[in-house]
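Limitations

Structures in this collection are predictions, not experimental determinations, and the ligand pose is part of the prediction. Treat each record accordingly. The example that follows, with fe (iii) ion as the small molecule, is included so readers can see exactly what is and is not provided: the inputs are given verbatim, and the output is the predicted complex.
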Amino acid sequence: MLYNKDQTLYIGNHTTSSKGYAAMAKQMIANGGSTFAFFTRNPRGGRAKEIDPRDVEEYRKLADEHHFGRIVAHAPYTLNACAAKESLREFAREIMEDDLRRMELIPGNYYNFHPGSHVGQGSAAGIMKIGEILNEVLTEEQTTTVLLETMSGKGSEVGGTFQELRGILDLVKRQDKVGICLDTCHVWDGGYDIAENLDGVLEEFGRVIGLEKLKAVHLNDSMNGLGSHKDRHAKIGEGRIGLEALTGVICHPLLQGLPFILETPNDDAGWTREISLLRERYGAFCGGH
Ligand code: FE
Ligand code: FE
Ligand code: ZN
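Predicted complex:
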């Protein structure tokens, strides 16, 4: 196999940002992680706290010492770039602009968002509106890569298929500023069989979107079956995808070096156990550490 013996597994969990960056890094070090995700503000989209430069400095030292990979900020999930109401799109635009401005204090990381829900306008209209907002908020100077998350196709969600994500990306002028975050629960719920046919799913991703666009993975099990379009996350190994298949994801040669983010229903003790279990399996089955 192509496994790189020196490969490090970048893994961590979605954590609370209420105490700042250094606190998140410390929590992740305690959990055994080397990357993490966090909401840039209240997930429902409230005001963001101003970032303290001393906190960022302390964070950078910790991340450096502990060889962290890139981190994956998450936009509030209420943000809808393809809402029918223009006022809601304006809100999405403002939040993304403000978040991207603040992300520059921690340069070179990822900003992940849910593409949106077309709320009856149809996915073609949704795709167009999302592409339009990306062209408005992305700047030449930014060092952050904005990631569209693969969705489960619940309700009128846009981004439940690789074709829809490709449709959005095709509209973006600044191609070097955009990528994809693959959520294992979402693609499974969306009908992509990563348990029985991960190679085939990644082959399709490569053909439709291009694997160079794949920048991060949300590693979740799913409470529901393949193609259920439900989006209910389960703990690793306690859902329908299963530990075997999720080990296959972290070990896959095409996914080496990506940040793997747990968004499982857990507390820090639970995430610590999941991280150590996955590291153990990574070492045993993929020859990494
Ligand atoms: Fe998400
Ligand atoms: Fe996710
Ligand atoms: Zn989800």
